[in-house]
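I had to read the description of the data format several times before I understood it. In essence, backbone conformation is discretised, so a fold becomes a row of integers matching the chain in length. I therefore recommend that a typical entry be quoted early in the introduction. For illustration, here is how one protein appears when written out as sequence plus structure tokens.

***
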Amino acid sequence: MSSSAGITLENLAQEIGAELKGDHEKIILGLNSIEKANKDELSFIFRDTFIPLLATTTAGAVILSEDNLGNYNGNALIGENPHLLYAKASKVFMELRNPKVAPFTSKLAAVHGSANIGDGSTINSFVTVSEGVVLDGCVSVGPSSFLGKEVRIGTGTIIHSNVSIYEGVEIGSNCIIHSGTVIGSDGLGFAKDGQDWHKIEHLGRVIIGNNVEIGSNSSIDRGSVGNTKIDDNVKIDNQVHLAHNVEIGEGTAIAARSAIAGSSKIGRYCTLAGCCAVVDNVEISDEVHITAMTLITKSIKEPGTYSSGTPFMKNKDWKKSAVLFKKLNKLIK
């Protein structure tokens, strides 16, 4: 990943809060992996697995911890948390690669006369901004996105292209909503009448806090009665589904293709790895970490790491284990 504009190592170190060892005037044009970085690129190492590559890398500089400084003789940006320094550096190069443009409202956007568009906001082509929408300052709405009636979006939030935000949704400041995501659609709510289904109208909203990021093609259902809530600093990956009335606590991260059923509550600073599922009306306490492909069927009241399912094995061994599993009850008796 490189940018046409560069930055000196001295300025970069100041930007990310790192200690610099080496050539202060060296110009760095971008970021790349430790294996592929060239003399004009910055790389990083925060796992011991990659320490041997320090001897062969051609990177112009490397982000690393002081503990690994003895394994490397080149330009170095040093800090206690190299992963965090890498994250900060990535933002610097993103801003170099995509310099800010003057805010505008496209002539091809449909903006209702009652909408309140804050200063510094950008409304791209084919965006629909409905009645009563309020956008605070410096909001960016990407092409072909839809904002329903009385949507409210806080300062500095970025809505990428083809995002659908239904009526009454509230999104805080400095959020990022990626393409294809739908926020505020109805959940799975039906009452049975013989062989027929009668729809339960969803009268609640979705309320999203500040500094939340939601990945592409995710679906966040509105509350049926009451609201679906996502607190500050929550990070949601691609293709995640949150059903009606789900509540996600501050600082929780949810990886791709996970699904949380209706009215379940996830605590603060939790992590859900990829393809996890949580059944309805479950409560999970703070600082719970759930490993990949785990199914949560009841509430979790204590912090810790939880798993379900079986690890992979050769198919013939799995078949033998499956047969034994069916016989467990008889064998125990």
Summary: The longest strand covers residues 2-8. The chain has three helices and 37 strands.
